[in-house]
Amino acid sequence: MAADFRIRPLGDRVVVKPAEREEKTKGGIFLPDTASKERPMEGTILAVGEGRLDDNGKRVPMNVQSGDKVLFAKYSGTEYKIDDVEYLILSEKDILGIIQE
Amino acid sequence: MAADFRIRPLGDRVVVKPAEREEKTKGGIFLPDTASKERPMEGTILAVGEGRLDDNGKRVPMNVQSGDKVLFAKYSGTEYKIDDVEYLILSEKDILGIIQE
Amino acid sequence: MAADFRIRPLGDRVVVKPAEREEKTKGGIFLPDTASKERPMEGTILAVGEGRLDDNGKRVPMNVQSGDKVLFAKYSGTEYKIDDVEYLILSEKDILGIIQE
Amino acid sequence: MAADFRIRPLGDRVVVKPAEREEKTKGGIFLPDTASKERPMEGTILAVGEGRLDDNGKRVPMNVQSGDKVLFAKYSGTEYKIDDVEYLILSEKDILGIIQE
Amino acid sequence: MAADFRIRPLGDRVVVKPAEREEKTKGGIFLPDTASKERPMEGTILAVGEGRLDDNGKRVPMNVQSGDKVLFAKYSGTEYKIDDVEYLILSEKDILGIIQE
Amino acid sequence: MAADFRIRPLGDRVVVKPAEREEKTKGGIFLPDTASKERPMEGTILAVGEGRLDDNGKRVPMNVQSGDKVLFAKYSGTEYKIDDVEYLILSEKDILGIIQE
Amino acid sequence: MAADFRIRPLGDRVVVKPAEREEKTKGGIFLPDTASKERPMEGTILAVGEGRLDDNGKRVPMNVQSGDKVLFAKYSGTEYKIDDVEYLILSEKDILGIIQE
User: Which HAMAP family does the record associate with it (chains A, B, C, D, E, F, G) (predicted)?
Assistant: First the structure.
């Protein structure tokens, strides 16, 4: 499905579908909203850019791919909606880690 | 039409005609104005610069072309009007993704 | 005329004669002063520097030349007057695009 | 155990399990909360990223490994919880030193 | 005279003797003090540094020389006095252009 | 003694034992607390990191070694305590100079 | 004398003994305290670091040496006292020029 996603992100950006707030992953990661410190959110990658160009003009390969479940900082990226579904466009550098199941 | 556009953007800049506020794309992307977070706008590229020069003086090819429908951050770029039509001049790095239809 | 202009700008700077505020270009670009967002101004390049040096000490060729009509951000550059005529010294990177007529 | 940790950190990030506040390490390092200056916290590394890419696109090897006890600045990184256990995702550059026992 | 000037500026710095405020150059450049925007000042270069070193350790040749009449941003540089005469030490990058007579 | 120090600092960091406030070095350096300007503190290096990696991935050798008495800016680094003794972890670039006795 | 100075500055730093406030140099440079703009101070270099390392790990030679009389920005550097004599540790890039007598 991801390859057909309607938005093709540029550079090192990815499109992410955020997990529901109350959702608990199979792996048991729970992300309460009352934390005093900023907590990461999690989501699933739907589309991946080609990667940024380094200083020598070579494209840097991406470390994530469509389908990966990822953690990302709460206020990073840009939200948008398609047919009332919320998505996020993030830079790969805002992704903290991949959730392995 | 794009090749004849009256403004030739410099470096990695592009000229974009923003979509109407209330417009809904064929693909169903809808961009409400009431969002708490900044949402991207969409538009169509009318003209594309030659690309910026990297640190070694080589020109970096652009990833977008005239006719592309793109998402960009709401407050990026510089607006201007020609014959009462509003345009935006954006740097390519402010373009989040390409809308595929 | 431009080659004889009294100021020789250094590096990637250019000297620009701004267009009159109310002026409308032949091409019909009109720049109202009431815009909520910052709008570019337009002007004509009178003199062009030799270009900046890149990290390897090579001079980066300029993308504009004397006589070009250009758009530039409203608050960029430094104004000065010669014989009561107002000029601007701008860095090339503040030039958004070239107006083609 | 660390190789199986549920989060695989990206780039030069690590996952750390912070030591209890009142805990005193075997080595006798005690970290009071009343200090006027910010004090480092300590913890144990559970998972290590592959390392960041340098300007030439080569991966920079990490200087820490799973199992290392480390000192890190108090407010660095991002907290999250799995099954009510608190973890931190840190960049390696926020790690001040390794505690040798 | 310039070669004997008492201060030898370091790196890409120059020593400038600012023109008198009310002075009008032969070329007719007049710099009123009432401008709403910052205007450049003009002056004559008395001494020139050897140039800064680039990233590869090579010295970047200066684009100005002693005797040049130059325009520079009003608040750039550091003032000092020798025998009640005011001078400025400027970085070359604060020089906007050379006045040709 | 230094080689056995309990903390192994990472990158270009060092562990320093600050000198007592009122202490006067053999060399007679006295550091009053009433100065209007920030004054450096002095201390003895107990442990030294392997050095940072430069842009080409080569390790930059450290300029200080265990046992060196050094001056450092007052508010640099991170304090911590082991068995009620205060230490500082500093980056080498915060060390102003070495005190020779 | 300078080679024996008690502090060996690191990197591109120098140790400077500032001239007395009211002092007038032989060359007649006078630095009043009432200036509206920040004025440089002058002093004599007592000790010079080995120079900073450039991006390729090569040491950049210093442009000043012990004994040089120099001008430097008033608020740059770090003060300290030895036996009630005030000294400054400055980075070479804060030195504006060398006073030739």
Answer: CH10 (MF_00580)
In chain F, which residues have their Cβ closer than 8 Å to the Cβ of D32? Answer: 81
F85 bridge partner residues: F82
pLDDT in tens, D41-67: 899 999 999 999 887 788 999 999 999
Q: Which of F52, C6, G82 is nearest to D54 (CA)?
A: F52
Between chains, do A89 and B97 touch, taking CB under 8 Å as contact? Answer: yes
8 A C-beta contact, residue C82 and residue C6? yes
Q: What is the pLDDT of residues F40-97, one digit of tens each?
A: 789 999 999 999 988 778 899 999 999 999 999 877 889 888 888 889 999 999 999 9
Nearest to A99 among D6, D56, D78 (CB): D6
> pLDDT tens digits for G21-70?
544 545 555 544 444 445 678 999 999 999 998 877 889 999 999 999 99
Note the ipTM here. 0.78
Q: Say if A10 is an interface residue toward chain B (CB within 8 Å).
A: yes
- E9 at interface of G, judged by CB pairs closer than 8 A: yes
Q: Does F60 touch chain D (CB under 8 A)?
A: no
Task: State the DSSP string of F66-98.
Answer: TT-EEEEETT-SEEEEETTEEEEEEEGGGEEEE
Q: Which residue of B has its CA nearest to C73?
A: B78
Identify the residue whose tokens are 């993308």: C63
Structural domains of chain G in order of their starting residue, each with its CATH number: 2-23+38-98 (2.30.33.40)
pLDDT tens, position by position, A65-91: 999 999 998 778 898 888 888 899 999
